[in-house]
Amino acid sequence: MAIRVLLVDDQPLLRTGFRMILEAEQDLAVVGEAGDGLQALDQVRALQPDVVLMDIRMPRMDGVEATRRITGPAKDGPAKVLVLTTFDLDEYVVEALRAGASGFLLKDAPAGELVQAIRVVAAGEAMLAPSITRRLLDKYAGKLPSGEEPVPDTLHQLTEREVEVLKLVARGLSNAEIAADLFVSETTVKTHVGHVLTKLGLRDRVQAAVYAYESGLVRPGSA
After folding, report:
1. Is residue 12 part of a domain?
2. pTM over 0.85
3. Hey, CA dihedral for 205, 209, 210, 214, is it positive or negative?
4. What is the tens place of the pLDDT at every residue in 24-51?
5. Do 84 and 43 lie in a common domain?
6. What local confidence, expressed as pLDDT, does residue 223 receive?
7. Residue 69 and residue 161 share a domain
8. Looking at the structure, do residues 10 and 64 belong to the same domain, yes or no?
């Protein structure tokens, strides 16, 4: 079955470009388009896409609020949201991640990266590219904890190894990279990641990365 994709962007030319790229892939199907967040909500209900490719800045309703409604408790389907950002303009990408987005991608990303990101998100994983994660969180460094605040009580639920894994997730490392860094198997890493998400009540790796920075466990600019 093809992955059903909804394109949400207020620029028709961009939607056309994305459609051309995605429709060249046998396992992807563009089922609709929307020019703002309100249209996106209607299309999600009507078309039941697997992945929504979501712009941030749009008229009537922005991508943050649309993401919150699509992925929230009252959601109408299984759609996952992949946020598009231009970095120099978008100030609300972290808010979109908090709202429930499964990842983010630069609008000028290569076609292959866009296609792979959609496949990753559709599979239930998070699109967490290290370079983008670092630039985003460094951009918001002034709004995040300094690391001097008390460690949240929830963090004490984790074992020492789970804390190590959470720090590496926050740096954007994949399971394979974490396994190599800690000299354990990839299966073991998956188990640790699962425990971290369950204990902290987080949905996926994106929320885990944001939590690590917001809690002060990891500070922007740190290795």
Report:
1. yes
2. no
3. positive
4. 999 999 999 999 999 999 999 999 999 9
5. yes
6. 47
7. no
8. yes
Is the domain of 73 the same as that of 109? yes
148-191 confidence digits (pLDDT tens): 555 567 788 899 999 999 998 888 788 888 999 999 998 999 99
Residue 118 CA to residue 104 CA, distance in Å, equals: 10
Could you tell me the two tokens for 66? 């649309």
How many C-alpha atoms does 82 have within 13 Å on its Cβ side?
Answer: 29
Q: What are the tokens at 87?
A: 């970095």
Which of 138, 162, 195 is the C-terminal boundary of a domain?
138
In this structure, what CATH number is given to the domain that contains residue 119? 3.40.50.2300
SS3 per residue for the chain? CCEEEEEECCCHHHHHHHHHHHHCCCCEEEEEEECCHHHHHHHHHHHCCCEEEECCCCCCCCHHHHHHHHHCCCCCCCCEEEEEECCCCCCCHHHHHHHCCCEEEECCCCHHHHHHHHHHHHCCCCECCHHHHHHHHHHCHHHCCCCCCCCCHHHHHCCHHHHHHHHHHHCCCCHHHHHHHHCCCHHHHHHHHHHHHHHHCCCCHHHHHHHHHHCCCCCCCCC
Mean pLDDT, range 195-214, rounded to an integer: 84
Q: In this structure, is residue 145 part of a structural domain? A: no
- Residue 160 domain boundaries: 153-215
pLDDT in tens, 70-90: 987 666 667 999 998 876 556
As a whole number of angstroms, the distance between CA 80 and CA 103 comes to 9
CA angle centred on 89, ends 124 and 23, rounded to 5°: 45
The total domain count for the chain is: 2
